[in-house]
């Protein structure tokens, strides 16, 4: 990990000091701007998150979460409608 005793953080890629928030990946610090979102290619910020071994901007992860919830709710509604039809038969 690129960090001195004084608490200063240094980037594992360019080795320059990280003055503001950095992105920590497996105990190593990096400037977030060295990375881009795996989906939309936006420059990452320290709020980036990893999913399935890839880095994503927080906006896309939130969108993926919303889509997953909507898909789940649709499946539940379809199953409920199917069971209602079986009861009516």
Helix content: 25-40%
The count of β-strands is 6
Please state the structural category.
Answer: alpha+beta
Low-confidence stretches: none
> Strand arrangement, largest sheet?
1-2
- Topology order in helix (H) and strand (E) letters: EEEEEEH
The residue-averaged pLDDT reads 74
Largest beta sheet, briefly? 2 strands, antiparallel
Helical element count?
A: 1
Q: For the record, give the distance between the C-alpha atoms at the N and C termini, rounded to a whole number.
A: 65 Å
Radius of gyration equals 21 Å
> Which range does the strand content fall in?
15-25%
- Rough outline: rod-shaped
Write the layout of secondary structure elements.
Layout lengths: L8 E2 L6 E2 L4 E3 L2 E3 L18 E3 L2 E3 L1 H31 L1
Describe this structure in words.
This protein has 89 residues and is an alpha+beta fold. It has a two-stranded antiparallel sheet. A two-stranded antiparallel sheet has the order 3-4. Helices cover 35% and strands 18% of the residues. It has one helix spanning 58-88; strands spanning 9-10, 17-18, 23-25, 28-30, 49-51, 54-56. β5 and β6 form a beta hairpin.
Structure at a glance:
The protein is α+β, with helices and mostly antiparallel strands and 89 residues long. Helices cover 35% and strands 18% of the residues.
